[in-house]
Amino acid sequence: MPESIYKKAALPVIIISVIMVIISSVRWFDHKNKVNTVILATASQKGQYYAFGKALSKVVKKHNPKINIEVIPSEGSQQNEQWLQQQKVQLALLQSNTPLSASLDVVSFLFPEVFHLVVRSDAEIKRVSDLKGKRIALMRPGSGSYSLFWVLSHHYGLQASDFTALPMSSQEAFQALETGKVDAMFQVIALGNSQMTKLLRNPKIKLVPIDQGAALQLSVPALENTKIPKGAYNGAIPIPQTDLSTVSVRAILVSHNQVDSNLIYEITRILYESRNELVKENVQAAMIAAANSNNQMGFAFHPGAQAYFDQDQPSFIVEYAEPISLGLSVVLLCVSGLLQLRVWIQGKQKNRADVYNLQLIELIEKVNQAKNIKELKEIQKQLWDIFEKVIVDLDCDRISPESFQSFTFPWDVALKTIHHRETLLSTGITNGSFSDSQLSKIAEKDS
Length: 447
What we know:
This protein has 447 residues and is of the alpha/beta class. Helix content is 52%, strand content 15%. It has helices at residues 3-33, 48-63, 77-85, 144-155, 170-178, 194-200, 213-219, 261-273, 275-281, 303-309, 316-319, 321-369, 373-395, 401-426, 436-446; strands spanning 36-41, 67-72, 91-95, 104-120, 135-138, 164-167, 184-189, 205-207, 224-228, 244-256. Strands 1, 2, 3, 4, 5, 6, 7, 8, 9 and 10 form a ten-stranded mixed sheet that branches. Helix 8 packs across helix 10, helix 12 (321-369) runs parallel beside helix 14 (401-426) and helix 13 (373-395) packs antiparallel against helix 14 (401-426). It is rod-shaped, with a radius of gyration of 46 Å. Residues 431-436 have low confidence and may be disordered. This is TRAP transporter solute receptor, TAXI family. It comes from Gloeothece verrucosa (strain PCC 7822). Pfam families: NMT1_3 (PF16868). The chain crosses the membrane at residues 9-29.
């Protein structure tokens, strides 16, 4: 390949290689030092979702300072699901009965949330069907508790016109029940809630069983049969007095499937491997399902979370994509440098061969001007000296085989010119004029 083509090809490759090295270096450095802020939508600031979110944020920050979980309040599961779809948030806490769009994936099942139907003792409500004609405090529309109440009431044959539904905040509902402004309150909440504990220690307030959990599962598969254990809300005078049948639904941590898998993997890892620390911050974390039991109800799990559950480490290429890119760029740069070096060496080899060729041309000129055999012998000696040098340079790669081939032609011409000049001198002809007899003698000698 001609030297000019090598140079034209090498320069763009070197420039591109340098740019790739710079870009890869900047991206790798940025990735290693970047703090990822993730927004987590929960529920009311006074609710358990918000409290759990703050606990998770604190523990994740402790174990990985490059992940900052920003916890924000919301109206509940319905709003959280919408925010996730709109990518206004990256994580959200939902109830597992919440329909998820195809763009959302589960990160983990968390703690169970239990149906609490709490009534005033004087309201004569012993079962769900007794809510007919009563005033019922519900959580605000958009919350999981609100939507699940209608599932429950329809199952027991109640219509919206059969009772008075009064949506309000959790705090307002507790106060309304205590003061007699409502006859009952329904909330889906984790066991051990401090507000619920305080409320149930009022002798005028009691829990009503919900004992058709298996039947409710036919319409909402996410529901689970469960019990509120005897003494869960008071041990001295047991509240409830016996294990109370009810229904529960799991809180789940959900993410948009476009969120980086490595980021979700790390949050999932900390969630499970640092659960003891999480329990200290929020007792509900003690009821988080084991990692190997998360494959349930046909939910699609985020690839990052699934990788952790399967105990799969990220592939070598995925984990070291940026260093590999940097390495390849460096290799490409080195190859480009070697290519340029080769062009330079070939140019140098050609220049050295050109020097020898010029010397041969000068010797040929001297041969034509030689006056006697002695001068020819001296020129012939110089010719063989040049040949020796060329052979040594060829052996040491100071000239290329191609340059050697180009050298042999003028060298052979020079050698033949010496022989021809020697013939002319030996016959005494040097002026270029030949008689017929002299030409005949020259021809005989050359032959």
